[in-house]
C-alpha cells in the first residue's frame, strides 16, 4: 500500500517537473534569435521583439467570395512587393538571411495557408519572430488579398508566379 503511494507520488512529481520544463521552453524568448542587421547591431526595421507565442492560432471570419481572380492577382503583386525578400517565391531566393526562426516558404504545395489564420498573422505580426505587423502599411482589403493569394497559389510554379505577380490588379473581396 505504502509502495503504491510512493510510486504514485513519484509519477506526479515527474509530471509536474515535465510540465514546468515544457512551460519554460514554450514561453522562453532568446534575444539572440532576432535577426540583427545594419550598423551597431540594431534590429532591422520590421524585426519583432521576442514574446511568448500564443497558445492557439488566431482565426477571423473570412469574407465571402475571397478568392476572386482579381484578389488573387492583387495579392500576388503585394506578395512580390512586400514579402518575397523574407519568404522567397518560386524561382526567387529570400534576400534576408540569418533570421531565427527562418521565415517559411509560404508557397510550398503542402502548406495550408488558411485565410482565417493568415489574415491576423499579416495584420498583427507574429510574436517571437521577425514577422512584423503590416496593419500600419496595408489596409485590410490588401491583407485579405494576400491571404487569398497565399491560399489559392500553394504550389505555384515560377513562371506562373512571375506572370501573376507582375501585373497589379484591384482587389475587392465582397464585404470589404
Q: CATH superfamily, called what? A: Cytochrome c-like domain
What assembly state would you assign to the polypeptide chains in this entry? single chain
Major β-sheet annotation? none
CATH class: Mainly Alpha
What is the number of independent domains? 1
Helix content class? 40-55%
SS strand fraction? under 5%
Give me the number of helical elements: 6
Query: Structural class of the secondary elements?
Result: mainly alpha
Apparent shape? globular
Rg over CA atoms: 21 Å
Find the count of extended strands (DSSP E, 2+ residues).
Answer: 0
Low-pLDDT ranges: 20-55
Look at the structure and give the mean pLDDT.
Answer: 77
Just name the CATH architecture: Orthogonal Bundle
Please give a handful of descriptors for the protein shown.
176 residues, mainly alpha, Cytochrome Bc1 Complex, Chain D, domain 2, 6 helices, 43% helix, 0% strand, globular
